[in-house]
Amino acid sequence: MRVAGPADALANFARANGMRMRGHTLVWRSQTPAWVFRDASGIALQAGNAAHRALLLQRMKTHIHTVIPRYADIVDDWDVVNEVIDANQAGGLRNSPWLQIIGSDFIDLAFQCAKEVAPAGVGLFINDYNTEIPAKRAALRKVV
Asked: Domains, the chain, ranges and CATH?
């Protein structure tokens, strides 16, 4: 049994009780630590800067490649990206640091990273709220 933090404690509980888990979430604008969007000097990563884009992509890949294998024995499905849809934006995407710094392909790239390390049969999902509202559902369809 691994014990390093709250997620490990939950996973260990599930393992001990024959339960399965859903992984929520790998890429999210809301719960990402602020340092992820800063360089080694503490300077905010900027849109249009190729080095900053590469750094954020590497951080995203490292995170996904670390987390998925850690819980591969207990997690059946992953929310790869969370709350990326904004029906009020022309492209349907929330104007997050992920979008600003990497670009609209951050979603595809997150799924590619997840696919590289996810066991066969594991579901990979976009998770969002209010998709029962027609405008939000239409924006989600457009993005997908």
From this structure: 23-143 (3.20.20.80)
Long-range contacts of 6-14, Cβ-Cβ distance < 8 Å, separation of 24 or more: 7/71, 11/71, 11/74, 11/75, 14/74
Secondary structure of 32-90 in the HEC alphabet? CCHHHHECCCCCECCCCCHHHHHHHHHHHHHHHHHHHHHCCCCEEEEEEEECCECCCCC
Residue 94: which of 78, 112, 81, 111 has the closest Cα? 81
pTM, entire model: 0.94
The two tokens of residue 139 are 């924006």
Q: Please, what are the averages of pLDDT over each run of 10 residues along the chain (144 residues)?
A: 80 97 96 96 97 98 97 98 96 96 97 98 98 96 92
Longest dimension (CA), the chain: 48
